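queue> holo job accepted (adenosine-5'-triphosphate)
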Amino acid sequence: MGCNKVVIKLGGSLITDKSNPHTVNWESLNDVIDQIARFHNKYDSKIVLVHGGGSFGHYEVERIKKNKSIIDKVATSEIQESMLTLALAVIKLLVNSGIPASLHPAHTICNTNNAKNCNYMPIIRDLNNGLIPVTYGDAIFDNEGKIISGDDLSVEISNIINSDCLFFATDVEGILDEKGNLIKEVNKNYKITIINRAQFDVTGGIISKINKAFNSKSSNIRILSGKKLFNALIGEDVGTRIIN
Ligand SMILES: Nc1ncnc2c1ncn2[C@@H]1O[C@H](COP(=O)(O)OP(=O)(O)OP(=O)(O)O)[C@@H](O)[C@H]1O
Ligand SMILES: [Mg+2]
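queue> job finished
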């Protein structure tokens, strides 16, 4: 069965080039937005989009932390600016595809970097009105600059709107074993092998993504390749299913 209500996290690994600072992966972003548009035009489902930091947010935080012991006000603003730049790229392509996207930067709806401490009413309002709300991992100034993770926002929103589906779209097929083969299902006992530490990720990467995903009450939770998002949306068994 396809998704009636879905939260889609567009991973920074998918929509940016994580090895190059401030670089959008336009080909991949275009492709994934085409799939979302195809699904939106064909089915009457509710969609919330969340995106990650990739070579924008994660890179900025790493750059700043090399020079400063904390993320101060100026640094917070720099991270926010870089994330807004990426968000505008996402919004631009969504709007060009005829998708009624509405942007909700996390620093405007969240009080701290705990995703439980956000006001999701504007997102729910837009969702109920037939728009496609978009938010993203961001920097929030709360005594000092703190990073709120797009993965946390996705899980929290999935629980608040009672989504049946929660999909984390990435640049890999799903959770891979040490040989690079796809694991079809993981439960809480699964011990993941990290196969690639080279790319930066200041919010915990793939291990924390899985641990966070276990906290969603959605019945269909997957980590999957952005190339197969449409297949997952229409109910096909792709990527790694998270069983909680
Ligand atoms: N065992 C594994 N299975 C799958 N991916 C793995 C594994 N070990 C490491 N990875 C890496 O985890 C990455 C996905 O997590 P990562 O947090 O970097 O991406 P993301 O969440 O899409 O990006 P962002 O945090 O910017 O939104 C993959 O690109 C892959 O290189
Ligand atoms: Mg990540």
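queue> The beta strands are 5-10, 46-51, 101-103, 132-136, 138-142, 144-148, 165-170, 185-186, 220-225, 240-242.
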